[in-house]
Please model this.
Amino acid sequence: MRQLRAVTLLACALGSAAGARAQDTTGGAVSRSTLHAHRSPLTARVVPRDLSATARPIVVASKPFGESYILAELFAQLLEARGYAVERRPGLGATEIAFSALRSGAIDVYPEYTGTGLLAILGADSVPAGGARATFELVAREFALRYGARWLPPLGFENTYAVAVRQETARRYGLRTLSDLARAGPSLTAGLTADFIGRPDGLPGLARHYGLRFAAVRPLLPAVKYQALASGAVDVIDGYSTDGLIARYDLAVLDDDRDFFPPYEAAALVGARAQRDAPGAVLALTELSGRLDGPTMRGLNRRLEVDGVPVAQVAAAELRRLGLVAGDRRASEAPERRARGSLASELWGERLTIGRRTLRHLALTGASLLGAVVVGVPLGLLLERWRRGAEGVVRGVGLLQTVPSIALLAFMVPLLGIGVVPALVALFLYSLYPIVRNTYSGVRDADSAAVSAARAVGMTPAQVLGHVRLPLAAPIVMAGVRTAAVINVGTATLAAFVGAGGLGEPIVSGLALADSRQVLAGAIPAALLALLVDLALGGAERMVTPRGLRRRGG
Amino acid sequence: MTGGGARATIATVELSAAGVTKHYGAVRALRGVSLDVAAGECVALVGESGSGKTTLLRCFNRTVEPDGGRVAVGGRNVGELDPVALRRATGYVPQDGGLLPHWTVLRNAALVPRLRGGAEAAEADALGADALRLAGLDPAQFGGRYPHELSGGQRQRVALARALAGRPGVILLDEPFGALDAITRADVQHTFLAVRRERPASCLLVTHDLHEAERLADRVAVMRDGVIEQVAAPAELRSHPATEYVARLLKRTEL
Model:
């Protein structure tokens, strides 16, 4: 009966669904994917009705490292194959930003690890007995209770931290386990990611659990840690057990012999809104549950990180191989190594994308800078009239400058979600200080003889400000705007961590995927842009300098 | 109005201070100062640094508010006058010129007529140009220049022109020639005397140079520690110094 009804609805859908996801008003709906699904029982299933009145895209996000990109891309392509519109937000800052975005409904799903959920998000200080299953059940229960978020059944592999050394180091010190490492630690240098150094399930916990100490600890970006280890710059790194690069560099992974690390089962973590609006999409995602085992994931990571295959291809081939989407399964076996020419030709080939990102970047910078000028200049003028409070206010604004940008962005996410808005607010706050500071001190320190004479011959305070202080301070105010603009162009690259786009996009993904060319595809235009902005505003600075203040011949 | 010493009693009093006091924290800058300046008269305030002469001068355009006593201009208590209107009606020449560096010479000179409004900008500029000529600068040659393109003497001439352009009845001069070299100073002083003949206004001239005071002023007031020791015409001051301090001051400047 139910099957029959689905077929009827399918016919309706065929007639009406041109672009949007099929919906109806009669009480049942079929995912549009059924229309072009290949004939397998998996895809011919009937899915629950999705309540969203409009075809809101499902927002699929990832954290900024390769495996997370692949898993998110698998989610995204699977959903697309099932007829859902998808919006991709890869490379969101780190755990805090991604999870805040999920809680606020700015994203619908991203890949997460149970151990991370347990320790970094729930803040648990111990791991439940009972292995991976117990951990999963605990986080699933707690996330549903506390956040309304749902862990889908695990994907089928664990990706724990893998403390790795060179084979040669392992031989020399006789290292097989982390207990061995604790003995040899004081003569070794560790190169660890910032995340690992700070997380309770990272170095602090290891130090407590194993009594591990190193001669030195160097913070490293994920993108460079393997090279740093291979070149001998450091002796120990934190990797992921599924990293493609562990095999490539032939590293020795030390055994967690005293069970410090919790289980890190990978799973899709789904927000409350998607569960409510798009239960069909959530169900579709469970098709991946249990389908990816450890060797499979390592293979996918290797194809991305070692072979340099684009993430979309890696994911597409895997979905075909798993029989989750139609297509020639053998296609996935074909070597798809990216053919790469010179950096210049690659940049030229991407000129349209780069142009689009540059425009986005300029829009972010321009809008936030404009806001900072509109607020900062009047604030600076106001402070000149209210000097008693001025230094305090200026220092307060300056304090904002000392908040690390990534932290500021992370604070914004719970309040403002992800995307353009938090990026604009953060950039606005960063631009404020040089503008307020220069306006205030420029106006305050304007030629005091001219100011007091102007007052003594009968200018009103407003006239003194408008005709004397402000014109005399104009070049200094403009220099503040210029400083703010250049900082802004640089900081705006971090906007990509909250999904705001711009030239940071390739930088973030390039760092995540250890692809220096991608990094350069963002960094080079960003640097040029900063130079151009500096030049342009330098011209503006000269333009607003009153003639009488320019030295002769200058 | 040519009667020398008797002038102050015959002519109307233009500037008047009576029992004026002012202190800055613990420092008593003025300790009950009284002084009258008649219409058209020039009185020089002479004294060492910190004697209170600049503070007294500034009471007359309300850039300093006295703590006690009465300050009047044209018979009206300045406390009852709008300070902005009072300043626009009063010429003012500070030591450093105080020109607006981003404005041309002509615009600086025409500032007060422009501030007063009413007149067209062209009219104000004509007044400024007249004042420049009076102060010894050719408006055609200097009007379009900027202050930093002028010599120190020329800048003080512009400052003088700015004080004259509004045709004020009162001009306050705060060490106007103090920063100039001797030759330039003599030139500008000469111009000042010529201006006084052409535009008889009441002048209060602050200076630490007794010779300058004797040369430019009708009467000299010697100040010390916030009080006036003696007010007299230069010749009378020389012949009858009222106090020990005045006598010492005269002796020092005899050379």
User: Anything to note?
Assistant: The longest helix of chain B spans residues 182-198. The CA atoms of residues 9 and 38 of chain B lie 8 Å apart. The domain at 9-89+168-228 of chain B is CATH 3.40.50.300 (Rossmann fold).
